[in-house]
Amino acid sequence: MHNKLEAEITKSGGKVNKSLPLMKGFAAEITPKQIQEIAAREEVRHISLDSTVEALLDVATQTLGVPEQWSLGNTGKGRVVAIVDSGIYPHPDLSQPNNRIIAFKDFINGKKLPYDDFGHGTHVAGIIAGNGYMSNGQYKGVAPEASIVGVKVLNQYGVGKVSNVIAGIQWVVKNKNTYAIDVLNLSLGAIATESWTTDPLSQAAQKAWEAGMIVVAAAGNDGPNPGTIRTPSINPNIITVGALDDQGTPDPNDDVIAGFSSQGPTIDGFAKPDRYAPGVNITSLLADTTYVPKEKGGSGGTPSLKIVALGNSSKTTTSQYYNTMSGTSLATALISGEVALLLN
Fold first, then answer.
1. Dihedral angle at the C-alpha atoms of 95, 99, 103, 106, nearest 10 degrees?
2. Which fold has domain 52-342?
């Protein structure tokens, strides 16, 4: 039915940007008059604004007790985490000695091979599954043998449209079995303005959860005021993660909730976040945001070590390969990695 409606919108001067069968709908640019006409139709259940979405370890992993899991041989091997974000840069900690970026889909520029022109997704990926290759294991992610599926839905400024994120989640759901995806990491969010039952991004996350994936999402960085949980984290069926300040120590007794971490209740009155994890001054992978993959030839698009080192392979200080960031996005990645360990 929505295909017919799409055709009518196009015929009347509107523009259909994206078909979203996961939601039994589509994204379009239409006039206020068209909105009124469409809203009156019996087959239309809901209309929502295509809002803007924003990108929201050594000590951190100790705070979570991860080294104990490693000592038992639990490293996330065989598990796959999909990261819907700004992309994935083929950093040595993900591509050496074996490439663990098993798939990449780009909804922004349509490139076939992994890259990250903002750097956020790569930082998140390193927290989840970096193996510490360029730091002698110091900056190792939570599940250092897990595999990664990168889905680029945010642009070079770390922002994007809800419809793009939904398209990314839709692709993950469609390809869940192809790549054996276990966990969906959503270190991004938009301001919540409606119930989780009608919010499009929340409902897309719901579809991923119904498909059998564990969905982990960032609470948001709008704290400490209450009622600031972002979507899709307002969904009660997914794991919403807030950020702790671990004070730079592995001792959890001095941990406090980070001042920027969004607080519940959600717009529907649910208590959130569900989990907290370190999210202040987290060191992880530094992306070369100028890197553009070669679409033809080469070894699958993985850059040389010299390119990975940002043009200087003679120095191996960690600052060439790693940087430090803060946010609930990073706490979310820690929990996604922890879930990958727990699934083993």
1. 20
2. Rossmann fold (3.40.50)
